[in-house]
Write a structure and sequence with these properties.
By secondary structure, the chain is of the alpha+beta class. Strands 5, 6, 7, 8, 9 and 10 form a 6-stranded mixed β-sheet that branches. It has a two-stranded antiparallel sheet with strand order 1-3. It has a two-stranded antiparallel ribbon with strand order 2-4. A hairpin with a 2-residue loop joins strand 6 and strand 7. Helix 1 runs antiparallel to helix 2, helix 3 packs across helix 4 and helix 4 crosses helix 6. The protein is rod-shaped and about 165 Å long.
Length: 302
């Protein structure tokens, strides 16, 4: 719009110079200046009728007077518009809202940055989190957003950035301290689900929620570390008990097996069996001396 106004003024000035030059039989310099003015003015007006659009952008056209063209431009490339129309750009993809550490507040189109978010969990304990939300915008919703909020930056300040702070706080109330310390992924999934539901009517699609860190006061993390150490020692004791139980059971089984074997052996050694073994042993001897039962033989050895 500004280029159009400037071009129009230059073009009018060129016509004025042209009239003065011809009426007063102006010099070649005056005629040349007139031609330059006319060309410059026409060029500025022509440029004001063309705009370029990058991939990942949607252009909303606003007429002089404030009315909005209902159909936004969604295709990348060069486009033609009326010279009295202004272009408003909305980023449709790769938008990031990031709250990390003690960073300062900053807004740029659909992107926002700021400091960490403070939450309170189910147990009432306070923690600071670093969170990043990646989202995209449905191009068809750009006209409605501009009509309600103006530029994209205004919408981000009023809605998106506020929600990225408020929703994690609301969701944290459903998680206790231990869950937040040990189930960060589940917490991030719950935040993502809540944001998707809240942003659906705005045409925003959440592509990723990343909770990069959850920082509790040292007093809480120390107690958690102690509890973890106690749990490890408890598990070690339970494992030792289980090992001792298995070893005792093994020894019992081995003893029972030995007793059963001895029982079978004893039951198999009857008097007849023992006598047969005795006879078999005598039969295999090199010399045999039969001594009556109850006698006391004298054996002479040399």
């Amino acid at each position: 719009m500004i280029l159009f106004v400037i071009g129009l003024l230059v073009l009018v000035g060129g016509f004025i110079f042209a009239g003065m030059a011809f009426s007063n039989e102006g010099t070649s310099f005056g005629i040349g200046s007139t031609v330059v003015a006319l060309l410059l003015g026409g060029g500025l007006i022509g440029v004001s009728c063309v705009y370029a659009q990058d991939a990942g952008e949607v252009i909303v056209l606003k007429n002089f007077g404030g009315s909005i063209v209902d159909r936004p431009s969604v295709d990348a490339g060069f486009h033609v518009k009326a010279p009295w129309q202004d272009t408003i750009t909305y980023d449709t993809r790769n938008n990031v809202i990031s709250y990390v550490g003690d960073g300062g507040e900053d807004y740029d189109g659909g992107t926002a940055r700021g400091n960490q978010v403070t939450i309170n969990d189910k147990n009432g304990a306070s923690a600071n989190i670093d969170i990043q939300v990646n989202y995209s915008l449905d191009p068809k919703k750009a006209v409605d957003l501009y009509r309600d909020y103006g530029k994209q930056e205004n919408f981000v300040k009023a809605v998106a950035a506020v929600d990225v702070r408020s929703v994690p706080r609301e969701v944290a109330g459903s998680f206790d301290t231990i869950q937040l310390l040990t189930q960060r992924g589940e917490y991030a999934d719950a935040v993502e689900k809540a944001l998707k539901a809240k942003w659906e009517d705005f045409g925003l699609e959440v592509t990723q929620v990343s909770v990069q860190e959850i920082r509790y006061p040292k007093s809480i993390t120390d107690k958690y570390a102690e509890a973890q150490a106690a749990e490890v020692e408890k598990q070690k004791a339970l494992n030792a008990q289980e090992t001792a139980k298995v070893e005792a059971e093994t020894r019992k089984i081995e003893a029972q097996g030995e007793a059963d074997a001895n029982k079978v052996l004893n039951e198999s050694l009857t008097d007849k069996v023992l006598m047969q073994h005795y006879i078999d042993a005598l039969a295999g001897a090199d010399s045999l001396t039969i001594v009556p039962d109850g006698s006391q033989p004298i054996i002479k050895t040399e």
